[in-house]
Amino acid sequence: MQIRFAGIGGQGVVLAGVILGEAAAIEGLKVLQTQDYSSASRGGHSIADVIISDSEIYDLMVTNADVLVALHQLGYETAKSKLKPDGLLIVDTDLVKPDRDYVGAPFTRIAEETTGLALTVNMVALGYLIAKTGVVKPESVEKAIRRRVPKGTEEINIKAFRRGLEVGSK
């Protein structure tokens, strides 16, 4: 499965991709995770690609995304051409106005309401993605969160992830 996260710097897109890739590796799947971002640390486009498979992976980047998670309009505009026509588009409904069918929720607002921090938007969106696709088990994602987020922020990130799972399961 080819998954692309797209947003702007500061939304944690790259970290979401790293955590998803690690969760897949924990499950013994083959993974390729790459990222691309502009030189602007805040406000420029940010993309993380994750390819997950139970067999060899020959692509070096997402070429035909099965899923695009867009957290900002700029990210969506930058990445939408890579989404398959029948691919799943997941968006932050407050920040992205797509020109095709989509699912989503106001991820940034949910992050702020759940943890008090907009920067946990990546974990809310990751939870939503897992609920909608089942690409990896939630427990594997939680293990990867504990390994990858800054020390001391594990519980707040897991809380945001679980809220995303809950919203995505509805």
Provide a brief overview of the structure.
The chain is an alpha/beta fold and 170 residues long. The chain contains 6 helices and 6 strands. A 6-stranded mixed sheet has the order 2-3-1-4-5-6.
Topology at a glance:
Layout: E1 2-8, H1 13-26, E2 30-37, E3 45-53, E4 65-70, H2 73-79, E5 83-92, E6 103-105, H3 107-115, H4 121-133, H5 138-148, H6 154-169
Parallel strand pairs: 1-4, 4-5, 5-6
Antiparallel strand pairs: 1-3, 2-3
Helix pairs in contact: 1-4, 1-5, 3-4, 3-6, 4-6, 5-6
List keywords for this structure.
single chain; 170 residues; alpha/beta; six-stranded mixed sheet; 6 strands; globular
* Parts with pLDDT < 50 across at least 5 consecutive residues: none
What is the CA-atom radius of gyration, in angstroms? 14 Å
Overall, the morphology is: globular
Average pLDDT, to the nearest integer?
95
* Biggest sheet features: 6 strands, mixed
Sequence of strands across the biggest β-sheet: 2-3-1-4-5-6
Instruction: Report how far apart the termini are.
Output: 23 Å
What percentage of residues falls in helices of 4 or more residues? 40-55%
> Hey, roughly how much beta strand do the residues contain?
25-35%
E-strand count: 6
The count of helical stretches stands at 6
Derived structural class:
alpha/beta
Spell the H/E element sequence. EHEEEHEEHHHH
Pfam families: POR (PF01558)
InterPro entries: 2-oxoglutarate_synth_KorC, Pyrv/ketoisovalerate_OxRed_cat, Pyrv_flavodox_OxRed_cen
Organism: Pyrococcus kukulkanii
Protein name: 2-oxoacid:ferredoxin oxidoreductase subunit gamma
